Amino acid sequence: METLTFDSDDLDVTEDFLSHAYARMRIGSATPGSNRARVRRAGISSVSVDELSLDFEMSYSVTPLGRICLCVVHEGTVRDHGFQGVEDSFGAGDVVLFAPPDLPYSGRICNARYNITMLDPALLTQVAGAPDGAGPVRLTGHRPRSAAAAAHLARTITHLRDAVLCDPQIADQPLIAATAAQHLAASVLTAFPSTALPEPTAADRNDAHPAMLRRALAYMDDHADQPTTVADVAAAAHVTVRALQYAFRRHLDTTPLAHLRRVRLAHVHHDLVAADPGSGVTVTAIAARWGFHHPGRFAALYRETYRRAPYETLTGD
Q1: pLDDT at residue 10, rounded to an integer
Q2: Contact 6, 42 (CB under 8 A)
Q3: Cα 166 from Cα 188, distance rounded (Å)
Q4: What is the DSSP letter of 249?
Q5: How many C-beta atoms surround the C-beta of residue 217 within 10 A?
Q6: Which of 51, 142, 164, 313 is least surrounded, with the fewest CB atoms within 10 Å of its CB?
Q7: Residue-wise DSSP of 204-226
Q8: What pTM, to 2 d.p., does this model score?
Q9: Structural contact between residues 63 and 24, judged by C-beta atoms closer than 8 angstroms
Q10: Nearest to residue 216, comparing CAs of 205, 225, 207?
Q11: Which domain holds residue 48?
């Protein structure tokens, strides 16, 4: 897990820090007096969430980040923000893509408190499953499709920050880290227009037969304790991600990730039944072992599936 904190009112020091934390940039101030900047980061290898607070008006010109960079504005404004083909301004409550990973951008932060979430662009392709030869999935708009989509993405980022990245013991577990990163990428693809194709091709439909599905299910059962992507399952079943998704929808009325979550839940149930409650083992520890990092959501899913609370299974009540 990566953590980082910064607090300075020296503009040169701030520029040097931001250039190392993000990408090479030039900044300037139009505010007399204090130029205080504060940054707090928590992250894992593929995803980071930063909280920033600037008590002044700061101009910025940034080279390409190489990562998906999302901004959630809490207070203040971001003005005259621009990159190739785009010029916009943002205020409190806005959720935006700052720029595609390969483009520079510039603008002004005006006495703002905001959130920067960065993720590896490869996550979008892993989750969406680009057809062979189609290249990586790219976002094609900097504003979400709707206010509801923006609000859902903002909640996902908050959950990632507060329920996963805030606790090193949780964030450092590979299964939890992979699951959380995939969930964020799926939320980004849901929120923003992209090059991801929504429907399977004719070849995908032909590949979505029961024998292929059995291979996929067997792979999931054998690898439930490992960080596993939909792309991994599709490769094991020798089909495209879209064919895999279509097969699960057609034959099981679910998605690959939803089924994998059910497989992992079954392992949690088995471990709860087998555990000795006098040994000090906890429901939270067993759930985390299988990638469930949000106690409330896990408990609700468990109760929905097994008609009892997980603690009751552990204690035998």
Answers
A1: 93
A2: no
A3: 21
A4: I
A5: 18
A6: 51
A7: HHHH--HHHHHHHHHHHHHTTTS
A8: 0.75
A9: yes
A10: 207
A11: 2-120
